[in-house]
User: Fold these one by one.
Assistant:
Number 1:
Amino acid sequence: MILKTKGKPWRIDEPIIGRVAFDAADDAEILIVQDIVPDDLRRYKAILTSHDIDTSIDKAAVYAIPGFGHLSAGDIVVVNSDGVINTQYRIDSTHNFLLFTERCNSNCLMCSQPPRDKDDTGYFYNIYSQVIPLIPKECAELGITGGEPTLLGGLFFKLLEQIQHQLPDTEVHCLTNGRSFAWDGFAKRLGDMSFKRLMLGIPLYSDFNLLHDYVVQGDGAFEQTVQGLYNLAKYDVRIELRIVLHKPTISRLNKLSKFIYKNLPFVEHVAFMGLENQGYTPHNFDKLWIDPVEYGDDLAEAMMYLSDHGMNVSLYNSQLCVTPEEIWQFSRRSISDWKNIYLDKCEGCTVSEECGGFFSSNLVKHSLGIRALR
Amino acid sequence: MVKIADPVHEKKTRKFQDLNYYSSKHQSDYYLLPFRFHRISEEREVMVNEIGDCLIVPKGTAARVIERNVCVADDPELYGDLIANFFISTTPVPELLNVLSTRYRTKKSFLDNFTSLHIFVISLRCEHTCHYCQVSRVTSDKHMYDMNQYHIDEGIKLMMQSPSPYVTMEFQGGEALLAFENIKYAVERTKQEAIRYEKTITYVICTNLAPLTDEILVYCKENNILISTSLDGPEFIHNKNRHKPNNNSYQLAVDGIMKCRSVLGEDNVSALLTTTNLSLQYPKEIVDEYVNLGFRNIFLRPISPYGFATRSATKNKYDASLFLTFYKKALDRIIEYNLKGYFIREDYASIILKKMLTPFPVGYVDLQSPAGIINSVIVFNYDGKIYASDEARMLAEMQDFTFQLGVLGEHSYSEIFYGDKASGLTAVLANESLAGCADCAFQSYCGADPIYNWATQGDMYGHRPTSSFCQRNMEIIRYIIELMDSDKRIERIFRNWITGKS
């Protein structure tokens, strides 16, 4: 799936944000011109076209774009001054994410979206404060991700407030490492919003602080995260815990489950997640990789423990053929549609409809136990 | 804030710290958090922290921890367990101190709503003459031995003043059903008051089921009244224990249980076992009986040292050790059934397991600290006298009025619940401050029972080394831990008992 394209920019000084239309009759901010240029372009902020430059048109534009096959009418894009056009919201997808910043205060060994040390927070705030009003009210689900979204500070709350008020029916899922909420005032500010359709997805990799800190590469991160979780619970913010399954933490997985039940029984959902071979992961592969067939029993024990105690658990990014049948019931097809693939080996598998499938990045590395079930 | 990573495209500068970097922060000059420990077998011991979380470890581990002989390099697993379970800390005050305090408050949150169980001794009359009966019983003179409407009204008034939004109204006897008209009066009266005071009320009738009629069952069904009865085991034990002129107590109880189940539903009728000298010889037969009758739980209760029970010494005074032998045999039998796939739970073990394995409070009056008396339960006797617990009124039947708190209609809520008698007990209500309990590893799983101490040892403070309460609970708790530690399958069964999953 292509989320980005590029052409020759013309008269673009700052990023232009808007919905795209192929038909001049549609309600949109940006027009895609494929054949004849309409006479009246006044109501558009920009035009995008595959034609070559036509300087007679007095309008911000990007010319010579290779194709528009990846765009649908109503998709929201950012047209940058360098001619790069990024898709921010796809109208036909249920997996839309707003990447609030690429900065992060953690540096997790398996980060799939490695952080960049550049202050992009103003840039992204500018974009999203314009994107959010354009998102259709029918949008069922919207993700917020990063980097670490809370690093936007006050702007983080401003964007959340915009979402809360302009998308009153949308379920919002925000991925954060939770460390900022160790500061009580930060958690309280979120609690004061009473944003009931917001769920925070917060990772916790081990019950032993040393291991969690090692995985996220941050001194004191465990205590900050757990403190953050307590503060969020105090202010009645909904929480999901996310546990990535990798070598350094598997041996204490069952103990982590017990820690969660005893110390964090207020969390609404616990998601166990297979490793995505992307971002930093290939670099740290030797430290991280453990074949799912090797941790199946540990995973089943940890998940059954939480489930038996009435907690809501899910398994993401896993393949049924390497997962104990006891916990198939928790397996969800969660990989974003544009990343989800199956292998040649999966041909003819009778349960592939229920199977979580693979990240496209898993083509290179996946369990040796993968096979078609019949 | 930690170091921010370098941009992803500059791969050469991407730096990650290895595990040793983080391990180096964990030296053996760690700080100890409060915990207690106890030997559970020749090889194993248990360490229990202030919030009741436990670690079962090889013998000598507690000593090694205290002597700072555990280090992360040699013992990563144990060291991790100690840190993660709040036994040690790398800082003098643990970073997550408020997690600990929240956990502690949660464990004690049964106190938040104060007294919720209100026992109404609706009549002292009974047609049974059980030799172990903890109260005296009378067969005649309805007017003298039934609770009168004035006292019922006054009891309800007090119950409505409970701070708890959820209260339980339990009707006991004698045989409560002999005064069914009084129960009906009390229920109807309470229903109106409950709306006024915004309370949710659970009704329970404790009965031997002999006087059960269809009319009573219909009424219980209509009003969601739970039935609690007694079943001491197979016919030959039950009839001997629970004597009735025609010797058909067992048949009446079993028929009654079946009827209650079909009308009220299986979950709304429960049976209790009282262990007599005779029962001690038949642990397997008793468990089998419960299984044969389709029960999913059994409560192995020792006999109380009160009332008539203590008068027939030959029949009912037995050593804690005899009860423990019985208990273990019965528990083993129960576990055997579970291993074979039949779910049946032992309630006393389940209560202890809940305290051990969950972060939540357990509202069981006999194993509570501060003690359940007054804090959780109050008893209104048939004659209007108010007692601190069911056991307290049994003592009163033996002319010992030490734990009488007042009289219905004469004393106010605060005089009864916060008066001199009640506050005089505070020093002996918390096992955290009782010699012998204060340093016991099982403190958080056990409770304080000043009335038991008074009845058996003549003082409320009690002497733990000679207390049968202490001997019994210490050994049951130890045994449960040993079983759980010795066999993964039993651990799973125990977990199922507290989660209800089979």
Number 2:
Amino acid sequence: MNIAKPNSYRSGPDDRGHFGNFGGRFVAETLMPLILDLEKAYTAAKADPAFQGAMNGYLKNYVGRPSPLYFAERLTEHLGGAKIYLKREELNHTGSHKVNNVLGQIMLARRMGKKRIIAETGAGQHGVATATLCARFGLECVVYMGAVDVERQQPNVIRMEMLGAKVVPVQSGTRTLKDAMNEALRDWVTNVHNTFYCIGTVAGPHPYPTLVRDFQSIIGNETKTQMQEIEGRLPDSLVACIGGGSNAMGLFHPFLDDPSVEIFGVEAAGHGLTQLHAASIAGGRPGVLHGNRTYLLMDADGQIQDAHSISAGLDYPGIGPEHSWLHEVGRVNYLSATDDEALAAFQLLSKLEGIIPALEPAHAIAKVMELAPKRPRDHLMVVNLSGRGDKDVPQVGDILRGKSK
Amino acid sequence: MITRIDTRFAELKKQGRAAFVTYVMAGDPDPATSLEIVKALSKSGSDVIELGIPFTDPMADGPSIQAAGLRALKVGMTLKKTLDLVRDFRKDDNLTPLVLMGYYNPIYIYGVDKFLADAKTSGVDGLIIVDLPPEEDDELCIPALRAGLNFIRLATPTTDDKRLPAVLANTSGFVYYVSIAGITGAAAADANVVGEAVARIKRHTKLPICVGFGIRTPEAARAIAEKADGSVVGTALVDALKNSLDAEGRATAKTVNAVAELTAALAQGVKGAQQAAE
């Protein structure tokens, strides 16, 4: 396919929410008026210095930003190539990048006068961030979570409940993230008058992919400044894991118009791309689900297929529409890492750097292990360490003990 | 363009009564039984039939209709087989309007132009696609109108007077008013509140207005039929079907009758209603 290269990769979406052929607003009529209101409220908030000022205050003093850009010396020595920097999003309050976006959306919800917040969550990181900010601002919080994920992410379920949120285990479909999103949409359709839907990734109907991207772009903006301070120039490459793709979009977006920067997104290849996996770009094609057109895992009849990843946060059959577009225009290279590769990377980073990563960014580390040795020693590679591994410790412990038996 | 839907509503208007609109899922619990059920609907008094296109992720539907879709998918139902079902139904019935209702992805994957051509030749009269608001009219609505199919839009309690003209602009056949902000099979709306909403929409359009979501009994169907141009019943019929299945979810000797009997009772309710003076 011959796709025109844009003058800027950062100008999207158009006024109808399209990134090329992707994105849009594919939702029930009941939700349309609210989505149009949200777009207006977001446009106004973006232009309001008071909103931006208040957000910056919370980002600094509540979230703990800026997050460090850390030179991973031992990992670099071990791999013997590119100089590897970790963007330490796992040090944020609540333990992942998710809090950046949730803070923005909760402040928008307050601006719109909404008192009830709903969210969907896979690994529980988005749910924990939402429960946290609802506690902070005294808002009712309901989190939909696939029953399978409730089982494998118990520590996060307990955290959400301690923060006062109601966690609803979703029993329909595959009982994972996509079903949690269906259930959240059903709740929203039913309670549209008083409820704000806090979406956890750069997906869903316009304007969600844009506003989540904007709230997460602080990751890339800080990285740009920090790299200038440390090395006096731009990084040469960026690597981030992708489920829906919000941590990746946050890191990538400020660099899209810097042609010298190579960009890699890493999808979850699960048991392998010919078996069960969650790699929508590598193993899917464009379709329409959850309010947007994007790459999806589906069968020949357009029925959505089950995704699989060892990481509950990547276990989703779709990807944010802007990623689909960046793939088609060729600006970002999308790779994939299997469960086993992610587990190996999880252990390597823990042992070499004393940092236990979440299973999600372990997929990004897995590709760094492949890419870095092939790069020269003056190559600057930034990997987004989007979350910490506390939530995954019981699951990985079980797997490793099982393997050693 | 005059479709079977237009003709049917014109006839009903002459008779001075509201339409009884039924919904079942194509291929539930299996393609052969499903065809018999659709035939039984028209014979038992359904004026317009909505046939669900099975989809794995029906975001605006409740548990009953989601389960019906999954039952159909489990026995291998597809969009192509849904069109085959319509074609088979048309062999015996060339009058009852038939509307496909579902989500966009299976149609998008089938290919819009091919789908519209095949739907038209199969004997489909109209489409209700839940996740295509007027903002996405270029996708399917405009091509469907060009292909000679009605595109029936949902209007909801959140669709205010300012937005209604956009919702109605490319709508034809009838307007489907969703009586509650919620999913299918949820609690019923108050008939008086529905009456006010129907009156409000009538100020914007001459199209018939059918009301659905939450109507389960002949009494409720009748109360709505007194306020609108049609009552739509789906979940109650799907539940009657489900309750007739065996432990493995397969059709039994009772299945077709269970749906036919409830349809007849509901149709009686609707036909007993006096329509409000316009």
